[in-house]
User: What shape does this take?
Amino acid sequence: MAVATTEVQLTSTGPSGLWSWLTTVDHKRIGLLYGISALVFFIVGGLEAFFVRLQLSGANGTVLSADAYNQLFTMHGLTMVFLVVMPLGAAFTNYLLPIMIGARDVAFPRLNAFSYWVFFFGGVLLYTSFVVGGGPDGGWFGYAPLSIEITEVVRMDYWALGLQFLGVGSIAASANFIATILTMRAPGMTLMRMPVFIWMALVTAFLLIFSLPIIGVGLFQVFFDRNFGTLFYVSYAQGDPLLWQHLFWLFGHPEVYILILPAMGIVSEVLPTFSRKPLFGYSFVVFAGIAIGFQGFGVWSHHMFTSGMGPIAEAGFATSTMLIAVPTGIKIFNWIGTTWDGVLRFKTPMLFSLGFIAMFVIGGLSGVTHAIVPADTQQHDSYYVVAHFHYVLFGGALFGFVAGVYYWFPKFTGRMMSETLGKWHFWLMLAGFNLTFAPMHILGLNGMPRRTYRYPEGLGWEFWNGIATLGSAVIAISGLVFIWNLIKSRKHGEIAGPDPWDGRTLEWTISSPPPVHNFDEVPIVQHRDDFWHQKYTEDDDGYLVELEPVSGGTAVLTGPEDHGDERKEIHMPSPSYYPILSALGLAISSIGLIYQPVGFIITAVGMMVALWGLFGWAIEPSQREPYYV
Assistant: This one.
């Protein structure tokens, strides 16, 4: 039957030009947008941290004023948590989820684009405060009553609405990921055949769905207290400042696992590839991740042991905090078991994965001390706590995400990253990280409080603060090496091919970078690590035996000519500018809310733009003209 077609080369990654990126609904491009945005915010957040370190490098520092210090340490925390680590998880999940489960896109491509643009404008909204009176200065946690005071200054209004806005994007993305994983897996891919990274993405999405509404309520209450005379957190009017702490940490501790679980999933994919072994105890790793998700909602008050909850609550939360170490320990032992007696290849992704395990173990051990109420009471609000969460979130999450960048960069770009630069990056980052944050354990135990912008001479803190500042400079150098490696490899890296690492999962069966439609034919999955089983079997002694390539299998991407006269019709979603328009309208509305009553006009204009985007989104055709392969 003669049909008008649009011919697309199999290696095509889609149309080019700025407009194509602004209107894209391709999950791979949205993943790249998340990743590039997170890298930019990482540079900004790193500069903020570096200035904080310079201020504290010696006694009586004069680099920053108290006000500037408060702004920078607040925005550093906000940036690294909400604008770097969370979007990095979204970046990997967006790009990899469909191609790891054998799908052509996510369940709701336009909603996917909307979630990115909400994240982007949320970040812009937070940083807009710097040009209208200064950045948020009440800490990234925004404890009441500090966050509801000085209502004539709008800094914390931008904080409250910026975080609320970012939460909308995360909920939209999470609902999309859950729907995709539960309904769009390739035939034969049962839940227990899914890659561990996909399992961790699923748990993370559920954590976001259930935790973000909690902090959303709290943020609305902060905004209403600041702008509309409510008294939720005003103690003299029967409000309760501790209510904010409960709401925040009911979100904030699941948030820790929202940040770390995707990195755990990445490491669970990297280690088997470079050990040439299946993941040891796959089922235990999966169910340990699920257990972490459940238990994460039952430990929040270990952040509040000094708030006077009483001995019964403290004993209960101390016990639950100790128990959550069990599934985490299971994962660590299974990762070590995966490498045991394996044929190890110490490529850069493997080095960062091993670094992740080592640094995360150190962070976990210091975290166990926070489950002990008397010890936590002594360590509370000291630099010991700062050391702990940086070992977990920098040494853990960021090491894991960097491992993922080196591992999947060939899939993203079709080119390999430099191994020489990669190893320089790893050793510099490992050394700089430990130089920066290991001394903070000593500083905390020697009594240095966190969130102080200056300290006098004679307290014994100068030496270790100087070492920490030196370490931060080494981290900055490692970051420059990484960025140079990305730029250089993108244009001049070695051509990768579809399967440069001898991978195990479905994304390595297609070209690098993948075509717009991902798969010519939706694969049929028969095993866990299905691609590995297409390439290898074992002999009677348990040694790998390479199989002959199967003609017509999924191991090699086939071109149109291989199908003879049979042309396969591909339907893909059409680009749309309505998601970005809707997100922009909501961002404008949020700014208007801060300046009521005069901002009513701004809010009205923003809502009109948002409604225009939403109605256009609802009525536009969902698919472009089909093309054939």
Observations:
- Confidence is low (pLDDT under 50) at residues 1-11, 551-565.
- The domain at 25-484 is CATH 1.20.210.10 (Cytochrome C Oxidase; Chain A).
- The radius of gyration is 25 Å.
